[in-house]
Amino acid sequence: MFTANSMNCLTEALGLSLPGNGTTLATHADREQLFKEAGRRIVDLARRYYEKDDESALPRSIASFAAFENAMSLDVAMGGSTNTVLHLLAAAREAGVDFTMKDIDRISRRVPCLCKVAPAVADVHIEDVHRAGGIMAILGELDRAGLLNRDVPTVHSKTMADALSRWDIMQAHDTSVFTLYRAAPGGVPTQVAFSQDRRWNELDMDRSQGIIRDKAHAFSQDGGLAVLYGNIAEKGCIVKTAGVDESIWKFTGKARVYESQEDAVEGILGEQVQAGDVVVIRYEGPKGGPGMQEMLYPTSYLKSRGLGAQCALLTDGRFSAAPPACRSATPRPRRPAVARLRWSRMATPSRSTSRTVASTSPSPTPNSLRDARQWRRRAARRGSPPTASVSSRPHCRPTRR
Questions:
Q1: Contact 329, 317 (CB under 8 A)
Q2: By mean pLDDT, which of 164-168, 169-173, 238-242 is the weakest?
Q3: Catalytic residue at 354?
């Protein structure tokens, strides 16, 4: 469930790709048939628009606000990459859809975690999700829980409800659907596309202990992603709660502050970072790190040192879905986000838990006048900062604004 896989899955929920697009293995022969069907579908959509003036065939007609809600609900339900927030917000802006962080926060509070995939758990991979019915099965469970917009159109069905009636294995009757989702790995290391056609003997239809759960048996009633707010992330940041060890849903430690990913890696490998620390990496967002590189090394090295469940990480940069520790990444960092981190200092006590990320200054709310004055005073004298705090506990709710 890194970024590419996550977005591949989300396009099914957006209604912009065919069933199986997000979970069919590249090496399986079914993928070739999927490609061919997608090509035929594109030609059909183009003809509908250019020959029949059918604007319902356009992506903007399909990817509506309700469709973006479905995509984010899927992401939260399966704990996908945190980068999906960047991409979804960018796509919504391009489509002229007013879909914001507030909508993501709202969705993350009501959608449960129904599926956990590597790296959140080590022994579940995308082929296992496919065997359990793929994305359509997860959407089906969300629908039965009343958490899906079922009247939105897709590129392959009149409505999402129509799509689920055919492609959700818990309600499907077409044997070709069951054949599709029984597509299995070849069992031989290869990078050759469409090179094998193995099938599982049976599907995973266990919704209480299987790979995909129903709402009653969810891994958690809070979703796999959460939006955090606080006085060092006033516009919000993202944490992948599905990948956070429960032992550090609430975390307190000293801040170890680094000015780049490279400095942080040096500090981690050089054993400056110890169990109980909060690693703060600044200036890796678009304001400070042009290109906004994906930072996989710090979390990987923390895990290699056995600190995966003993440290937290806070950054203005970008991560995918590979969190060995409780960490958060701002999805759209801007200058204020960097400014809030700017006054962090080495060995500053920090507290970390999944709904708030804030300095433990005397002011209780991040937007208060008292808080703003305090930050201005600190900026003026560059003194010691207040305690930093990150909240990753699913039942810990920030004050609504």
A1: yes
A2: 238-242
A3: no
